[in-house]
Write a structure and sequence with these properties.
heterodimer, A: alpha+beta, 5-stranded antiparallel sheet, 4-stranded antiparallel sheet, B: mainly alpha, Rna Polymerase Sigma Factor, Chain: A
Chain lengths: 266, 199
């Protein structure tokens, strides 16, 4: 009965009202994934909150709909979800798990950096793990992807083995830890994350290089596997740029449309 | 009764003739296949609840317009992800709208390190109702909200129309966070039952 349900369940109302903090929301969504009864309750409560929306109805100025129609005409729609997404390969899973341990072990708080010499073991571990992941992908992907993956792996390897490689760890404000290995010499960085807050299918994480010359999209983060995201290679770094992460509508945006959930000075 | 079955009729007004009777889920199905006429019909139906909800939370008129427009485009983009088996089309739309609105105000709060203001108390249902258009839903919601205790009512309206987290609501009301989260669930269940929406 209700009174004996596990504690996260009492957050169902706040969840349906979008009244959870990011951390609470992540916790509740983990619970939701395992609790069919909660999913059913949430959908009922969402019908009630939808009435709150209807009760607030107010016609917008005419321009709103017109601009939305115009924007839709030049916006690609998301493809439907199809069943049968292949499970991650063993190599990749192992590598991802290892990287998670690494990222989770990083101290939290505000972004911090450590020089190569003080973190040599860390970077080498990251290098091995990321290389294993990248090579795992290459080994297991279709023939026509091989070359592309090798280029990707080579790019990652070049960053990780660069003499000026620097490891940076930081927390994402919406949850999760990222580890970045950066090389100024290679003008590139390798990004990986653990425990990023799961997003609805309508959103995605997008990585940006942000500088005085404007913000450039660097990469869209792939869907996490077992809580691990990446490794992702971003190249073409310019001096003075910062790395930013935002949550964008699925498919990505040409420019950031939301506040960054992470910013790192490179 | 789910929202799709009844909510369109009281709102059908000028310009909706050609789509009258076409339910939102059917229109969304057409939108998912890239039908822009269907999207225009969808906009006609959802623009007011979307804009009203966003404005209640965001407050600033210009930002509200921006966010409402983003919501409409998101509906276009994600139409194929709407699953009628998991809830009504209006609930799906309202969720997108409310989340976007809340994301906007919370990111602003973070960036400006804005403190909760006492003025927050003025964000109550009556304020929202005052600027919203008269409609059947508004009257039903008002009646059902009145059947709740004051704490239940405030917990819901501060969260939904104010865009506050339950912890912020707890701080505003001077009540333990656990109490607020429990009240939110209780009162939404009561609201759901009072409004006669089917789970």
């Amino acid at each position: 009965m209700r009174t004996h349900r596990p504690e996260p369940h009492t957050l169902a109302g706040a969840y349906a009202l979008d009244a959870l903090t990011r951390a609470d929301q992540a916790r509740f969504e983990r619970h939701l994934a395992r609790c069919q009864q909660c999913a059913a309750e949430i959908s009922g409560l969402r019908e009630a909150t939808a009435r709150l929306a209807l009760a607030a109805a107010a016609e917008p100025p005419a321009g709103v709909t017109q601009r939305a129609l115009a924007a839709a005409a030049r916006t690609r729609q998301l493809p439907p979800l199809t069943p049968g997404t292949p499970p991650p390969s063993p190599h990749r899973r192992l590598a991802a798990a290892a990287f998670a341990g690494l990222a989770a072990g990083a101290p939290g708080g505000s972004p911090f950096r450590r020089r190569w010499l003080t973190r040599v073991a860390f970077v080498i571990a990251a290098a091995m793990v990321i290389l294993a992941a990248a090579l795992g992908v290459a080994t297991h992907s279709a023939q026509r992807q091989l070359q592309q993956d090798h280029v990707h792996s080579a790019g990652i390897a070049a960053v990780l083995t660069a003499r000026d490689a620097t490891m940076i760890s930081a927390r994402v404000s919406t949850g999760g830890t990222v580890s970045v290995v950066m090389s100024g010499r290679e003008h590139a960085l390798v990004f990986a994350a653990a425990g990023l807050r799961a997003l609805p299918s309508t959103s995605c994480y997008e990585l940006w290089l942000m500088g005085p010359g404007g913000d450039r999209p660097a990469a869209m983060l792939p869907v996490p596997r077992h809580g691990m995201t990446g490794p992702v290679l971003a190249s073409g770094l310019k001096p003075g740029e910062r790395l930013g992460l935002t949550i964008e509508p699925a498919g990505g945006s040409p420019h950031p449309t939301t506040r960054t959930v992470l910013q790192i000075a490179l | 009764m789910r929202l799709d079955d009844g909510w369109l009729s009281p709102r059908a007004g000028p310009g909706t003739r050609e789509s009258r009777g076409a339910e939102l889920p059917v229109l969304l199905e057409r939108v998912a296949r890239g039908d822009r006429d269907a999207f225009e019909d969808v906009c006609r139906h959802i623009a007011a609840p979307v804009f009203g909800t966003v404005r209640a939370v965001v407050r600033d008129p210009q930002q509200s317009e921006e966010v409402a427009q983003e919501v409409l485009v998101e509906v276009w983009q994600c139409a194929c992800r709407f699953d009628p088996g998991r809830g009504s089309a209006m609930a799906w739309v309202a969720t997108i709208a409310h989340r976007r609105a809340v994301d906007r105000v919370r990111s602003e709060q973070r960036s400006a390190q804005r403190e909760l203001r006492a003025a927050a108390h003025t964000i109550a249902y009556d304020d929202v109702a005052e600027t919203a258009e008269a409609n059947l839903d508004r009257e039903r919601v008002r009646r059902c909200l009145q059947s709740l205790t004051e704490l239940q009512r405030e917990a819901i309206t501060l969260a939904y129309y104010g865009g506050y987290t339950y912890r912020q609501v707890a701080a505003l009301l001077g009540v333990a966070a656990g109490t607020v989260s429990t009240r939110m669930r209780d009162s939404l269940i009561r609201l759901r039952d009072c409004l006669g929406v089917e789970r």
